[in-house]
């Protein structure tokens, strides 16, 4: 069964692929600059990251239907979303404004740092919640 | 989005959201923390629910509230609190204020 969220993700993927292919064609005909397909596609990837990160906290009840998850874990989940949003914004901004070489490095670094920070925060929350089972 | 701004403009509603950061709570638990009548508190809960900032579930006779904010909404909550937006309680809340026993 295809849920609404899977359908949305498939539509986003289709838009991403179609725009990348369309821009490549336009670049082949020299209607847009040679770096435009890369830039537009990467900005879209950054914005998709922002979109998913932003919605992370909105699905708290789905992640914890029984409502018995430790508050620290839910806070870590929200932090992970914030890290994804910031990483995505830097990714999109770098590909929008910076020279290509710099944009590549900065955007990769931003996303990796965001993922590591988010995962570290979640791991910390898991460890703390296991050590203090009665205190959330 | 205007529902979100309206919901975040009231300090009582912002405080409810802050309380929910520490985990889901029943309507009774939340209402006890504020010196306002039940109907006023109910109006606050309705505003939060209409804005999609909280989600609810029934547990027996009580209603359990879950925090349901996006990163952007949480940032707006922080800004609204930092700048004291709507620091005077809204008209609907102030009209029904009562002394806490």
Tell me the structural class of chain B. Answer: alpha+beta
The arrangement of helices and strands of chain B along the chain is: HHEHHEEHH
State the helix count of chain A: 5
- Helix count of chain B equals 6
How many β-strand runs of chain B? 3
Spatial order of the strands in the main sheet of chain B? 1-3-2
Show unreliable segments of chain A: none
Work out the radius of gyration of chain B.
13 Å
Sequence stretches where pLDDT stays below 50 over 5 or more residues of chain B: 91-101
Cα-to-Cα separation, first versus last residue of chain A: 35 Å
Cα-atom radius of gyration of chain A:
19 Å
Number of strands of chain A: 0
Sheet/helix structural class of chain A: mainly alpha
Estimated share of beta-strand residues of chain B: 5-15%
Overall pLDDT metric of chain B: 83
The major beta sheet of chain B can be summarized as:
3 strands, antiparallel
């Amino acid at each position: 069964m295809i849920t609404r969220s899977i359908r949305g993700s498939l539509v986003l993927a289709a838009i991403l692929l179609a725009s990348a292919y369309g821009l490549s064609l336009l670049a082949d005909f020299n209607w847009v600059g040679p770096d435009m397909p890369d830039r537009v596609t990467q900005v879209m990837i950054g914005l998709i990251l922002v979109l998913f990160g932003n919605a992370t906290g909105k699905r708290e009840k789905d992640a914890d239907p029984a409502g018995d998850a430790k508050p620290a874990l839910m806070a870590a989940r929200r932090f992970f979303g914030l890290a994804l949003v910031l990483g995505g914004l830097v990714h999109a901004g770098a590909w929008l404004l910076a020279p290509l070489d710099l944009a590549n490095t900065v955007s990769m670094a931003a996303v990796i740092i965001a993922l590591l920070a988010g995962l570290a925060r979640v791991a910390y929350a898991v460890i703390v919640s296991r050590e203090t089972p009665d205190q959330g | 989005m205007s529902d979100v701004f309206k919901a975040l403009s009231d300090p009582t509603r912002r405080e409810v959201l802050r309380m929910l950061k520490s985990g889901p709570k029943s309507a009774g638990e939340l209402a006890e923390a504020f010196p306002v009548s039940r109907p006023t508190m109910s109006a606050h809960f309705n505003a939060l629910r209409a804005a999609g900032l909280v989600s609810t579930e029934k547990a027996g006779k009580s209603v359990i509230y879950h925090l349901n904010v996006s990163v952007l909404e949480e940032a707006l909550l922080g800004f609204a609190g930092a700048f004291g937006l709507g620091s005077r309680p809204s008209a609907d809340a102030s009209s029904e204020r009562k002394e806490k026993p």
